[in-house]
Amino acid sequence: MRILALFLILLTPATATATIYNCDITPSGTGDWLPTRLLVEHEVGAPSADVWDPLIKYFVGAPMQARVVVENSKRVTMTWDITRLTNTQRGDRQYTPALSFRATILKPSLKLVIRSKPRGYSNAYLGQGICRTK
Questions:
Q1: How far is residue 41's CA from residue 133's CA, in Å, rounded to a whole number?
Q2: Which of 124, 41, 120 is nearest to 85 (CA)?
Q3: Is the pLDDT of residue 12 over 70?
Q4: Between β-strands 75-87 and 125-133, what pairing exists: parallel, antiparallel or unpaired?
Q5: In the list 11, 52, 80, 103, which could disulfide-bond 114, CB 3.0-4.6 Å?
Q6: How many CB atoms lie within 10 A of CB 94?
Q7: Which residues pair with residue 77 across a beta bridge?
Q8: What residues contact residue 133 under an 8 Å CB cut-off, 6+ apart?
Q9: Alpha-carbon span 118 to 52, nearest angstrom
């Protein structure tokens, strides 16, 4: 019986827990295309993370999957695109095929650096913030 129990324990996969980062962002400059808050759910070693912010909520309606491009003991960096954006908030119609994001969370300090760049345009946006974990 003990051997059977030990065998079942060894066959049971270890469940890894994801870290949820809740980040407040302060844009540098205008920050028109930066979120003010970013939620990231990431499991160490996973090739992707789930991201959610007010821009994703408005344009996509559900959390998106980001690609993890760098992960080590000091930081995790992820990228994602929101595609086919049309903004009519200012009375005129602005369109971009994609808004590309790159966010880095520094693990020891939980500081965040985020950049966004509208594809096809020369301007880019930068913001910094601090995250809390759950």
A1: 10
A2: 120
A3: no
A4: unpaired
A5: 103
A6: 13
A7: 70, 104
A8: 19, 20, 21, 22, 110
A9: 18
Amino acid at site 46:
A
Between the alpha carbon of residue 115 and those of residues 6, 32, 104, the distances in Å are 49, 12, 9
Closest of 85, 73, 81 to residue 103, by C-alpha: 81
Q: How far apart are CA 126 and CA 113, in angstroms?
A: 7
Three-class secondary structure of residue 26 per DSSP: strand
Structure tokens at 75: 């930081």
Reported as a pLDDT band with limits 50, 70 and 90, residue 96 is confident
Q: Which amino acid is at 78?
A: M
Is pTM, for the whole model, over 0.85?
Answer: no
CB 102 within 8 A of CB 33: no
Measured between alpha carbons, how far is residue 5 from residues 12, 13, 14 in Å? 11, 14, 16
Residue type, 123: N
For residues 108 and 90, what is the distance between their CA atoms, to the nearest angstrom? 40
For the cut 70, the answer to whether the pLDDT of residue 55 exceeds it is: yes
For 83-127, the DSSP string reads EEEEE-TTSS-EEEEEEEEEEEEETTTTEEEEEEEETTSS--EEE
